[in-house]
Model the fold of this input.
Amino acid sequence: MAREFRQSGFSNRAENEGHRLINKDGSFNVEKTGLRFFERFSLFHWLIHLSLLRFVSILFATYLVVNAIFAIIYMLCGPEAISGPIPETSSENFLHAFFFSTQTLTTVGYGSLYPISKAASLVASVEAFLGLLGFAMATGLLYGRFSRPKARILFSNRALIAPYRDGKGLMIRLANAKESQITNLSVIMTYSELWNEDGEIKRKFFALDLEIQEISALVTSWTLVHPVNEDSPLWDISEEKLKNKKSEIIIHLRGYDETYSQIVQTRASFTSDEIILNARFRKILGHNEEGKATIDLSTLSDFEVVSVS
Done:
């Protein structure tokens, strides 16, 4: 008999869930409400998880805005607050103050521009202090982004129920997209579906037994196989049953990344529309003329339909 999994972390009430339990990128499909924005918002978490392009764009935009604000403050100190020729127009005055601000904020100080009045000197000292703090924070964020271990595990787009030995098996294929080595991998596979208990729709979770639960290293690819036997919740499965029960398969993978010397983990899920019956994965392993084993990651999700007698 299939073992019900009660430590899923999800609610068992169907009315409390979205379209899927876990998004395709591995994040949980949950939106938190009931608190003010700044009570639940973490600036560090947000910046760490931004794409690199957006992160650099925000840093550069912040740099421009801060310098523009200090340029306006220097302009308010008077046209003779900063050394050099007195600007004739307001635009020249702004650029004059802006470039002085960039030199002060970055503590470069070329020497051609320097504060003359006491007010400008006071503003410059404050800006230099904020610049040191700002660049220290930016450096910490950059280090946090590059040092944060992240598993680049590729999962097949579909989960297949394919012929396996004398019966069938649920199969999901995965591979490491990086050149780094991940060792001591372990995986937990959970199957979820809706049940009608005394007129109340509830979601149940079942731990799926795998043919291989752990491997020593993810060298090429790994096909997770759950034998579909009489003890499996997928024993009498059909496309209609998958859709009616809003079935979902959840994968939690954990391993040791030798590059970061840290544990990395990732998640994936497959809803009823992403589970294909009577299909099997195509071959992706081979070798080249140099005698090296090869793996074509572009065909990781390729499969073919098989006839069932």
Remarks:
- The chain has six helices and 15 strands.
